[in-house]
Amino acid sequence: MLELPARLTQLQALIRCGQLTPQDAVSAQVQRGQALSTPFPCVVDQLPIAALGDGPLAGIALAHKDIFQLDDRLPGCGVGHGHAQASVHAAAAIAALQQAGASQWATLVMAPHACGATSQNMHFARCVNPLDSEAAVGGSSSGSAVAVAAGMSYAALGTDTAGSVRIPAATCGLIGLKTTHGAVSTRGCAPLAPSLDSVGILSRYAPDAREIWAALCPQLPRVAATRTPRCHLWLPEDGVAPDVAQAIRTWAAQLDAQVTPLDMADTFDSLNRHAQRVLLHETARTHHASLCDGSAESGVQAIGLMGLGLPLAWYQASMQSRAGLLQDFVTRYFHDAEFLILPSLADPVPDWQTVEVGHVAFDRASLFAMHRYMGFVNYLGLPALNLPIARDTRGRAVCVQVLARPFAEHRLLDFAEQVPPIFWTH
To answer: In whole angstroms, how large is the CA radius of gyration of the chain?
Structure first.
C-alpha cells in the first residue's frame, strides 16, 4: 500500500508537483480506509468512486456523516443503510466538494437522526475512540470523528445542531469547525432543528479544515492576520471540573494573545433557555409523525416529546428575540476582542460506559457535561471551533471552544494554526 502523508495539504502538494497521480492518491486513501474500518467500525456504506474531477481537492477521497443526500442515494441517518432513489441530487455541501474535485468513498455512522451527544446507536457497532478505546466518542457526528482520528479520511463533514461537530471533535482530539448558521446550505441534508442546523468540518489539522472550508464557502476570502488577537475567556466557577479549568488557564497564559477573563453566566443561562426551546419545538415538528405513532428513536423521543408539550408562544418568542440577542452578544463580547474562549466539555472526556444510557455505569451528570456549553452557540448562529489544547491525566483531550463573529471562519482557523497540535504532530 502506498504510504500517504499525514496531512491533506501535503497530499495536495504531491499531486500538484506530479509525484502522485490523483487516481493513485484516491486508490491509496480508499485502501487505507478499508484496512482501518475493521478496528474502527464507523463506515455505513462504501461508495463507488465516480470519475475524478478537477480542482484543488482533486485526488482527495473523503468520507462523511450519513446525513447527506448523494446523487441517486438517500442517507441512512444513523438508523440503517442508505438506499437508492432515482433523481435525488447530492446535498449542496457534497456538491461543493465535488465541484472542487473531491471524491467520497464512504458514508459514516451517526447518532440516530442526529439526536445524541454520544455515539450510542443500537443499529451499528460501537464506535471506538482511536485515542483511547475506553473513552467516549461524542455525537452525533461520531463516525466522522472516528474516521478522521483513525486516519481513514483526512477530513469529514458533520452537522451541528447543539454541538454535534464540536462534541465528537472534543472527545477525539480534533479540530471541529461549526460554521456560521446559513453560511453553508443545508439543502439535501436531513433536518433536525432547521433554525439551529449547520454543516461543520472535522479534521486533524487546521490547514486541512481550511481547504474544506474554502471549497464549501469560496465567496469568503481569507484575510491575513495583522495583529496579536484579543480574546475574552469565560471559565464558569462552578460549571467546569477543576483540572479542566486549570489546563485551560495554563494554556491561556502561554498564548501569544491578549486574554481577558470575563463572566457571562447570566447571558449564558438566558441564551441556553432560548436554544432549548428552539431545539425541542423544531425536533418535535421535524419528527412529528414518528413521535405521534410511537415509532420514534429513543433519542428523538427524549427531545421531541418535550417539544410536543412546549407552548408555541415560547418558541415564537425565542425566534423573535434571536436577531436582537445576537447583536447584543456581538456588541458586548466582541467589541474589543476578536475571539471568545470557553470550555468545550465541562468535565474530562468520560469512559464510554458512563454516558451510555441504560448501562449500569451510566451517569446523567457526565452526559450533561458533554453538551452543557454547546447549544447557545447554535441559537446565536455564530461560528465556533473546537481546539485541543492539552492532555488530561489519562492522556485524553482537553479542548476549548473558540467563538468569533459571524462568517469569521478563516480567522478561527488562523487562530488554530497558532496552537501547536497536541495529538497530531506530523
So the answer is: 20
C-alpha cell at 52: 475524478
Spans of all domains in the chain? 8-216, 231-417
Contact 106, 202 (CB under 8 A): no
Q: How many angstroms separate the CA atoms of 405 and 381, rounded?
A: 10
Does the fold of domain 231-417 match that of domain 8-216?
yes
Cell numbers placing 259: 486574554
Helical pair 92-99 and 206-216, crossing angle rounded to 10 deg = 100
Q: Contact, 381 vs 326, CB < 8 A?
A: yes
131, 161 in Cβ contact below 8 A?
A: no
Q: What is the pTM of this model?
A: 0.97
The CATH number of 8-216 is 3.90.1300.10
- Measure Cα distances from 421 to 177, 206, 238 in Å: 16, 9, 29
CA distance 115 to 67: 12
Residue with grid cell 448558521, as numbered in its chain = 181
pLDDT in tens, 47-68: 999 878 899 999 999 999 999 9
C-alpha span between 1 and 22 (Å, rounded): 15
Concatenated DSSP letters for 115-138?
A: --SB---TTSPPP--TT-TTB--B
Task: Give the 3-state DSSP-derived string for 384-423, with helices as H, strands as E and coil as C.
Answer: EEEEEEEECCCCCEEEEEEECCCCCHHHHHHHHHCCCCCC
Q: What is the pLDDT of residues 290-338, one digit of tens each?
A: 999 999 999 999 999 999 999 999 999 999 999 999 999 999 999 999 9
CATH of 231-417, one of 3.90.1300.10, 3.40.50.1360, 2.170.120.40, 3.30.450.20: 3.90.1300.10
In this structure, the number of other CB atoms found within 10 A of the CB of residue 274 comes to 21
Helix (H) or strand (E) holding 178: strand 175-178
Conformational region of residue 7, where left means phi above 0, alpha means psi within -120 to 50, and beta covers everything else: beta
